[in-house]
């Protein structure tokens, strides 16, 4: 079983088994780059331990940030490995979260805050999957005591996130212990180490690096295993420099070019309470439209996204939505003939979005701001900046250009334990309507392809 593992997986497995059979009770931290095989390592360890202890009434316990889907995925993998090993028809399940081989049990639990897991005992092994997403308080209160009477060996699996996670805390404790006694307790293998044993993975990881950019939070944490140190500025000086383009601002479209738009909708005075309830974005008093031109010149690879050149801004402050409807429809449809428009349809924006969809049809895509959708929007914006796909028109001294730059300079980011992020401008420093319109523009570029030539023979 262990011989099926790659060398770096085998190194971890042997250390864990040594701790179990010599009753050392070590607490290991294991960081392996995304898709690098930590789940397979875990399943192989569980298979081996269930086999060795099948005549005993003992448990191994594994928890995950959620039961569905994460714990269920781990259960499915272990069932497959049991079948592969010839135990099909021998193993069974109990209560929907326990796998039984002989008298030995593998118990799979949720580490969600509301999960009631007290009363379980880990005799053989305690595993914490995706430990960067498990609450430190939940672990200390409910899971760590499961091995108190058995001196159980514990393995915390995951990838880096920020410097406040359970995984990072265990990692730093282990590194400090290693400096004192030389016993290896932390195992970290980034994407380059994994790629030594899998050429396909090398191609995949390099494509992700090109798509996201090497300093993208997701690439740094999930592939390079480098933690994010708190929040701070959303864009650094290098990224701001990458945004600056050399093309001129346009006030009308050019022939045979494809245009898209991102629209952030202002809140009107009567919607103040609704905006406070949403608690997603600072209340704005401006509607911002960002027009972008798609550049397909560097997209010979079908998996690459087109370049986006920002060519125009429209900015209305204090204007009634009912007054904007016809003007917006005319600008998007008749002036720029936009192929796709992504519009903020949160709260009052839903009304504007519905009107435009009736006028322009499927070219209008509504976007609802939630914590999760805004996080993905921010990550996609970072990827577009890092890859050099997104460029702002050359400085023209306009109020729109200066406001966009001001918001970019003032934008902050905050990273959450569940591997999501928020990006915003502090209300005390102004609005973030240009920034949100920019991110919606990037969303509009997704899945756009060049027009195919039409003709007849």
Alpha-beta content class: alpha/beta
CATH architecture assignment name of the largest domain: 2-Layer Sandwich
Low confidence ranges: 269-284, 453-457
Q: What average pLDDT do the residues reach?
A: 91
Primary descriptors:
457 residues; alpha/beta; Rossmann fold; Nucleotidyltransferase, domain 5; 2 domains; eight-stranded mixed β-sheet; 17 strands; disordered C terminus
Structure description:
It contains 15 helices and 17 strands. It has 457 residues and is of the alpha/beta class. The relative contact order is 0.11. 39% of the residues lie in helices and 20% in strands. It folds into 2 domains: 2-208, P-loop containing nucleotide triphosphate hydrolases (Rossmann fold, 3-Layer(aba) Sandwich); 231-445, Nucleotidyltransferase, domain 5, CATH 3.30.420. The protein has an 8-stranded mixed sheet. A 6-stranded mixed sheet has the order 14-13-10-11-12-15. The model is unreliable at 269-284 and 453-457 (pLDDT under 50).
């Amino acid at each position: 079983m262990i011989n099926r593992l790659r060398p770096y997986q085998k190194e971890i497995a042997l250390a864990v088994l040594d701790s179990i059979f010599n009753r050392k009770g070590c607490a290991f931290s294991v960081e392996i780059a995304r898709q690098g095989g930590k789940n397979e390592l875990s399943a192989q360890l569980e298979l081996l331990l269930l086999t060795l202890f099948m005549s005993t009434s003992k448990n191994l316990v594994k928890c995950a940030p959620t039961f569905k889907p994460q714990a269920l995925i781990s259960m499915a993998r272990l069932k497959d490995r049991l079948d592969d090993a010839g135990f099909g028809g021998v193993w069974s399940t109990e209560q929907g979260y326990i796998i039984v081989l002989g008298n030995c049990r593998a118990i799979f639990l949720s580490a969600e805050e509301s999960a009631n897991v007290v009363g379980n005992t880990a005799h053989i092994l305690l595993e914490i999957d995706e430990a960067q997403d498990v609450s430190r308080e939940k672990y200390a209160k409910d899971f760590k005591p499961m091995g108190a009477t058995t001196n159980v060996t514990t393995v915390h699996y995951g990838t880096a996130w920020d410097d406040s996670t359970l995984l990072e805390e265990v990692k730093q404790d282990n590194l400090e212990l290693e400096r004192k006694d030389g016993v290896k307790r932390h195992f970290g293998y980034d994407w380059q180490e994994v790629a030594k044993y899998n050429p396909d993975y090398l191609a995949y990881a390099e494509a992700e690096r090109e798509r996201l950019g090497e300093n993208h939070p997701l690439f740094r944490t999930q592939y390079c295993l480098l933690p994010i140190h708190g929040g701070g500025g959303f864009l650094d000086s290098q990224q701001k420099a990458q945004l600056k383009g050399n093309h001129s601002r346009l006030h009308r479209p050019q022939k045979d070019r494809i245009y898209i738009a991102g629209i952030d909708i202002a809140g009107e005075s009567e919607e103040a309470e609704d905006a406070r309830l949403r608690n997603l974005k600072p209340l704005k008093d401006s509607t911002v439209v960002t027009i972008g031109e798609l550049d397909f010149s560097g997209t010979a690879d079908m998996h690459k996204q087109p370049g986006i050149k920002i060519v125009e801004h429209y900015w209305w402050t204090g204007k009634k939505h009912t007054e904007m409807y016809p003007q917006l429809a005319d600008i998007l449809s008749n002036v720029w003939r936009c192929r796709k428009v992504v519009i903020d349809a949160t709260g009052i924006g839903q009304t504007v979005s519905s009107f435009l969809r009736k006028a322009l049809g499927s070219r209008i895509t509504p976007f609802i701001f939630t914590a999760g959708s805004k996080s993905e929007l921010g990550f996609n914006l970072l990827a577009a900046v890092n890859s050099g796909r997104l460029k702002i028109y050359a400085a023209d001294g306009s109020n729109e250009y200066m406001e966009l730059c001001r918001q970019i300079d003032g934008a902050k980011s905050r990273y959450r334990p569940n591997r999501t992020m928020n990006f915003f401008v502090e209300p005390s420093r102004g609005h973030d309507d240009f920034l949100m319109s920019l991110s919606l523009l990037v969303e509009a570029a997704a899945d756009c392809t060049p027009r195919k030539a039409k003709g007849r023979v």
